[in-house]
Amino acid sequence: MTGYAQARAEDNGLALRVSIRSVNHRFLDLHVRLPEGWEQLEPRLRQRVRQHVRRGHVDVTLRIEATGPATVQLNQPLAAAYARAAQELGREFGEPPAIDFVALMRLPGVVTGAGIPSEDEVERAAGLALGCLDDALGRLDEMRYAEGASLATEMRGRLGIIARHAVEIEKLTTTLRPEYARRLGERLAELLGNTAMEPARLAQEAALLAERSDVTEEVARLRSHLQQFDALLESDPEAGKKLDFLLQEMQRESNTMLSKTPGVESQGMAITDLALEVKAEVERLREQMQNVE
Question: Same domain for 197 and 211?
């Protein structure tokens, strides 16, 4: 589901801000952005997000700033080693070096700032970062729950439309067998001319034709899927994959009805139209399912 949330926290000379942005996606696609030097926090942040979010493209951004006075830390042993190396090089070439301390401080590792934390500092900040993340995830959940409630209402409306179409299809199905018998009798009369056919045989052939085109079982299964879908919407907050499967089954039932429905009788044409409407509503539900976790 889509959503955005952020949270702030401040302690131990650090100010943190976590922002989370979520958009629709079939699976969980998680991206975590951290300031340089704080990469050790990423596995713990990822694990915490996975405990709350199962599907969606999720971007998590952590910003960290020092709230105390800026400090510069000098690695004096390393600086002394650089200076001794310069002096030895000068003696080798017979030219005593004039050490440029500003240039010396630019050498790698000589100066570290507060923005590059030590491992101990990262560990001390981990609890604060996770707490800030929990606050942001809680706000994100509130937004997603509100969107989910609205979406569930809309989806139940579409389920109601499909259920009404199923009732109409079932009613029309009961009128088809006499229509098959009439149509078959007319066709045989054209082929056989004055040759009579036994009524029992005619009824048997009509029954076989009706059975091959009967969609009663498909309608029954469609109703069962609708009931299961509605029950999952009501009771399972993480039903996304199950609902996806039910929609695939509904789509299969509508396709089967279309393949079995005759296209010449008025009842058959009406069933075809209704089955097409069912198929269209299922497609709309599948589009909405991209928002469901």
Answer: yes
Residues 179, 41 within the same domain: no
Confidence at residue 289, expressed as pLDDT on a 0 to 100 scale: 80
Specify the pTM. Answer: 0.59
Same domain, 224 and 100: no
Q: How many domains does the chain have?
A: 3
Whether residues 85 and 214 fall in one domain: no
Same domain, residue pair 202 and 159: yes
Q: What is the mean pLDDT of the chain?
A: 81
Indicate if 101 and 133 belong to the same structural domain: no
**Encoded amino acid at 120, one letter:** D
Domain that holds residue 229: 145-291
* pLDDT band at 21; cut points 50, 70, 90: very high
Q: State whether 244 and 154 are in the same domain.
A: yes
Q: How far apart are the first and last CA of the chain?
A: 7
CATH of the domain at 250: 1.20.120
**Tell me: the pLDDT tens digits for 175-224?**
766 666 566 556 656 555 555 556 665 556 555 555 566 778 889 999 99
